[in-house]
Amino acid sequence: MADFSQMYRDKLVSAADAAKVVKSGDWVDYGWSVGTTVAVDRELAKRMPELTDVKFRGGILTWTPEIFQIEHPEEHLTWNSWHMGGIERKAIAQGFSFYSPIRYSELPRYYADSSDPLDVAIFQVAPMDKHGFFNFGPNASHMTEVCKKARTIIVEVNENMPVCFGGFGEGIHISKVDMIVEGDNPSIAEMGSAAPTEVDQAVAEIIVKEIPDGACLQLGIGGMPNAVGMMIAQSDLKDLGVHTEMYVDAFVDIAKAGKITGARKNIDPGRQVYAFGAGTKKLYDYLDHNPECMSAPVSYTNDIRSISALDNFISINNTVDVDLYGQISAESSGIRQISGAGGQQDFVLGAYLSKGGKSIICCSSTFRTKSGELKSRIRPTLEPGSVVTDTRSNTHYLATEYGIVNLKGKTSWQKAEAIISVAHPLFRDELIAEAEKMHIWRKSNQR
Predict the structure, then answer these.
(1) Which residues are paired to 406 by β-bridges?
(2) Mean pLDDT of 43-63
(3) Choosing a second label site near 66 at 20 to 30 A (CA), which of 75, 152, 201, 447?
(4) Is residue 245 annotated as a catalytic residue, yes or no?
């Protein structure tokens, strides 16, 4: 039997020595979300001024890496993000961050099949167990394929990283690791969400009425899905299941309220399945060594075949804008990149294929600009440059604080009428006038 302790000692290096592995021109994977490197990042930032054209990959950053904070980062690196957040949006404005458009479910296959090199992978893990395995924490996502692809693998041990059980794809064995760094054991970065607004609560109340007992849930990122989760926790619903891309705090609240049993799930009964998790300490403590929760690769969680196999699948996701054709833009406003495609399209498609399933896109009917002007999120057409996340043929339900409408299979004039019916009343006449110009309004339509 291999002596894993000796193997560990042989591979143990300082963060500074690990950082020396990175060379100009390299492709470097920095991990995912709360698994992003900390100690090696700090040392690599010291080296970056002497390097050029280092191409980093990562996503859903929950803190600003040190490499972002050097002078003129655009002269030394690019950050290529699989999914954008506020930190990365700022980096786009600085000229060194770029979004990599992809359906999140395809990410493992991209690493497996792409001819693009991967020179170094650096990421945080939980401490090695007695069998020689390092757990990825709440970041299974695509990390197994990252490790298969990388020429050099550097793990950064963090004693605070929760151990997240799965079944496959949730960790890496020491025999596959090239270097081990013992970091400073920082607390796992927290991703809080804003308190639900009155509008969030109004939309949530509408959506919760659409959820039957025994439903399997997927919640997206944002205040509105979080409000839905809070309301479910306070509801009379029972025997709910979880099969989601992102595990968020709301699921913990629902589970602790006794609403989640997974008893009616067609696959993975009794288990809450997720690709990655990010939230508050409450979430990390709940996931740690919890056999009820199943950390799995995103190619499984977001696979339309997995989603559609679960009866009464309810998918709840946000959008930035929606137009009168029923096109959903959940990732950009014009040419301004806000988020990413993520798995929204997979869940929109999969939920509709589920027996009794519903895909619900939700948003507030309006928003205010920085100058205080009230604007409608429901537009005649999307703002020029906006990316279509969900095509008009795929959008199922749309919910605002003014109601919920089923858009599936409706002709263009029916769809326009339904969408306008959940727009803010101040904008309805204007939207009707635009719909008439677009030839998607009948004189017999209700006003």
Answers:
(1) 397
(2) 96
(3) 152
(4) yes
